[in-house]
Automatic annotation (TrEMBL):
The gene is pqiB. InterPro entries: Mce/MlaD, PqiA-PqiB_transport. Residues 48-139, 176-228, 294-396 form the Mce/MlaD domain. It comes from the Bacteria. It is found in: Cell inner membrane. It comes from Iodobacter arcticus. Pfam families: MlaD. Keywords: Cell inner membrane, Cell membrane, Membrane, Transmembrane, Transmembrane helix. PANTHER family: INTERMEMBRANE TRANSPORT PROTEIN PQIB, INTERMEMBRANE TRANSPORT PROTEIN PQIB-RELATED. This is Intermembrane transport protein PqiB.
Length: 559
């Protein structure tokens, strides 16, 4: 043991203390750590935003494969898909590139791009090979957000397309679908972007988009109506057939315009609300909201007279039939004349005169009463022979009446007259009455007597004909044609002889020349004898006395 102690004492002793210099080998892991930290920071710094998309289902979504595109450029990828049990939908998480951060506006739109076949055509065929993807359409808002609801279908128009968006609401109109056209004079100027039904208001609500520059056509006086494919109407105005474009004929659409009797008006702003009407004619009704109700008691049949039929004055519409009938009266204790069918008539002030709305209702009631006093009456007339539809015609062929009109159901009563068919019926009945009043028996008896005498005369004529026939058969008359023939032969011979005699004096014969010269000589002698004859006519005594001496006056006897 001592030897071991001595050996250990001879060994040098280690000195324990703090190391004052770091080994260079530690620089390698330190550098690696710094590089890794820098890479993590750089990746975090260049990492894009993470967004959450809510979808009704995850059809076509694959984690790590489904991309997010803008203008067919990849800007992100789906990183997670999970169920959102609270709202029964799918929660999709996607990571976008840093450059896409400014595209996440509040009004940005997302939808799935996949093969589709709809009324606008076939789209998304390229996804049959590449797979479905999520399309991002950036908005215009300056506010950003990271949660969005994916649309079930692609939007009709992009948010950045210039134009005008309008809100429409209507009751009892044909239900239209998203994508249906908006027409102006049958030319497509926009589309229906949204369509839903409000159960509280019980009306359809639509959102329209009007493309630029057609948005300037929408003014405060514009009217919107449903332009269905084919509209066929049978009324007192005849048969009306309206058709739109081929697309509207298949699916329908919305048309708009400004009424002809109204100015264009000022342009409207975005999200302006309008009323949607069932057709173009009903869109004009707000122009004639001010109207005066009257009652007309017609004694003619009102079959064919329908509510909405026109009330016309010399072909110009001034009102509308409101109800047929209106409060049917009781029939007891009334004469046949009092059994008039009450019809509600609306006289529309906007149709009576330009600027009629400026006057009060009392003013127009006095005007109507004055017209009634001058002989105004209402008559039923046939507006369409094919459908039998009637309309109310305002005429002035009635008698003058008092200005104070009668009342029926607290409404003023306008006088009525017989319509066109009733007048024809009355004339036919009057003609039949006159024919019935004629004494036809005597005329018929005289006619029978005349027929009998005519029969007797016919018998006499037959007897006379038989007598003449017997006379013609007598032998003496049988040779008469031969005698006539011989006589005609002798006449012919005489004519031939005369013709040969006259032939000697033709223009080519010598006798004709001699005769012509003789006639010329006679003519010359007559020319020379003409003065002598004139003198003898003037003074018959020229042959006895000298023409130069005056007539000798005989001397008278001496007294």
């Amino acid at each position: 043991m001592e030897n071991e102690v001595e050996k250990n004492a001879e060994l040098p002793q280690a000195k324990i203390g703090w190391l004052r210099r770091v080994s260079l080998i530690w620089l390698v892991p330190l550098a690696a750590l710094l590089v890794g930290a820098w890479m993590v920071y750089d990746t975090w710094r260049h990492q894009g935003p993470e967004i959450v998309l809510y979808m009704p289902n995850a059809e076509g979504i694959e984690v790590g494969k489904t991309t997010v595109k803008v203008l067919s450029v990849n800007v992100g990828k789906v990183i997670d898909v999970e169920l959102d049990s609270v709202k029964n939908r799918v929660r999709v998480t996607a990571r976008l590139d840093l450059e896409a951060r400014d595209l996440l506006n509040v009004d940005s739109q997302f939808w799935m791009v996949k093969p589709r076949v709809d009324r606008s055509g076939i789209s998304g065929l390229s996804t049959l090979l590449s797979g479905s993807f999520i399309q991002l359409n950036p908005g215009k808002s300056k506010n950003l957000q990271n949660e969005f609801i994916v649309l079930n279908e692609p939007p009709v128009t992009a948010a950045d397309v210039p134009g005008l968006r309008l809100a429409l609401s209507g009751r009892g109109v044909k239900v239209l679908s998203v994508g249906d056209p908006v027409l102006y004079q049958n030319f497509e100027v926009g589309r229906v972007e949204k369509a839903d039904f409000d159960p509280e208001q019980r009306q359809m609500n639509y959102r329209l988009f009007i493309q630029h520059p057609y948005d300037r056509l929408v003014t405060v006086n514009s009217r919107f109506w449903v332009a269905s494919g084919v509209q066929l109407a049978l009324s007192a105005d005849g048969i009306k057939l309206n058709t739109g474009s081929m697309e509207s004929m298949l699916s329908g659409g919305i048309a708009f315009g400004v009424p002809d009797n109204m100015p264009m008006g000022e342009q409207v702003s975005d999200q302006t609300r309008f009323t949607l009407f069932t057709d173009e004619s009903s869109s004009l009704e707000p122009l004639f909201e001010r109207r005066l109700p009257y009652i007309a008691l017609f004694s003619d049949s009102v079959r064919g007279l329908k509510p909405g039929a026109p009330v016309e004055l010399r072909g110009l519409r001034i009102g509308t039939v409101g109800a047929v009938p209106y409060l049917i009266p009781k029939l007891e204790n009334k004469t046949r004349k009092d059994h008039g069918i009450p019809v509600l008539i609306y006289l529309e002030l906007g149709r009576l005169a330009t600027g009629a709305d400026k006057e009060s209702d009392d003013y127009w009631r006095k005007v109507i009463a004055t017209q009634v006093a001058s002989g105004m009456v209402l008559k039923l007339k046939n507006g369409n022979l094919l459908t039998g539809a009637l309309y109310v015609d305002v005429d002035f062929s009635g008698k003058a009446r008092a200005k104070v009109l009668e009342r029926y159901a607290n409404l003023a009563v306008l006088p009525t007259g017989d319509g066109g068919l009733a007048q024809i019926e009355n004339k036919v009945i009057a003609l039949l009455d006159k024919l019935n009043a004629l004494k036809v028996e005597g005329v018929l008896a005289q006619g029978n007597k005349t027929l009998d005498e005519t029969g007797k005369l016919a018998g006499d004529v037959r007897t006379l004909v038989k007598t003449l026939d017997d006379f013609a058969q007598q032998p003496q008359l049988q040779g008469l044609p031969d005698e006539v023939q011989r006589t005609l032969s002798k006449v012919q011979d005489t004519l031939n002889t005369l013709n040969s005699t006259l032939g000697d004096y033709s223009g080519q014969s010598a006798a004709y020349g001699e005769l012509n010269r003789t006639l010329e000589s006679v003519n010359q002698v007559l020319q020379e004898a003409r003065p002598v004859i004139r003198t003898l006519n003037e003074k018959p005594n020229v042959l006895l006395f000298d023409r130069k001496q005056e007539d000798v006056q005989p001397k008278g006897a001496k007294p």
